């Protein structure tokens, strides 16, 4: 009975040491992720009538042909189309003009009101303990 207990303890210790060494190796050799999110911008086009599924597919197909849009980030709901684009390549006005040149859509480009342009949009309280803790943990692993 005593030898079985020793073998179990040794096996658990060996597995723990292996796990910790793999984790340590990963932390040392992993490079932080580099995101191009600083160049991504969200824009919106408001359509005058509701968009059915056939029109939604056509709008998505037309938007995917425009250079600078991330093709997997086009959202069509009722009468609004939201899309993400790289603001180093294009802007919302160019996207809107190109989309309108493809078909005679009845739509207008959404322009953010001036009083909302400078508002902070992050919903996280950056002074909270949980935010600071998660930020420090993220910095440790990156």
From TrEMBL:
Residue intervals passing through the bilayer: 7-28
UniProtKB keywords: Membrane, Transmembrane, Transmembrane helix
Protein name: Heavy-metal-associated domain-containing protein
Organism: Flavobacterium palustre
Organism ancestry: Bacteria, Pseudomonadati, Bacteroidota, Flavobacteriia, Flavobacteriales
């Amino acid at each position: 009975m005593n030898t079985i207990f020793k073998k179990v303890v040794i096996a658990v210790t060996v597995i723990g040491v292996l796990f910790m060494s793999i984790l340590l190796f990963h932390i040392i050799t992993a490079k932080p992720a580099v995101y191009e999110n600083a160049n991504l911008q969200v824009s919106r086009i408001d359509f005058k009538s509701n968009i059915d599924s056939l029109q939604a597919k056509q709008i998505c197909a037309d938007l995917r042909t425009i250079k600078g849009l991330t093709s997997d980030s086009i959202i069509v709901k009722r009468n609004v189309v939201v899309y993400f684009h790289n603001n180093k390549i294009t802007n919302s006005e160019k996207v809107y003009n190109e989309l309108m040149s493809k078909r005679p859509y009845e739509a207008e480009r959404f322009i953010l009101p001036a009083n909302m342009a400078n508002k902070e949009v992050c919903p996280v309280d950056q002074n909270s303990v949980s935010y600071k803790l998660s930020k420090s943990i993220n910095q440790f692993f990156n």
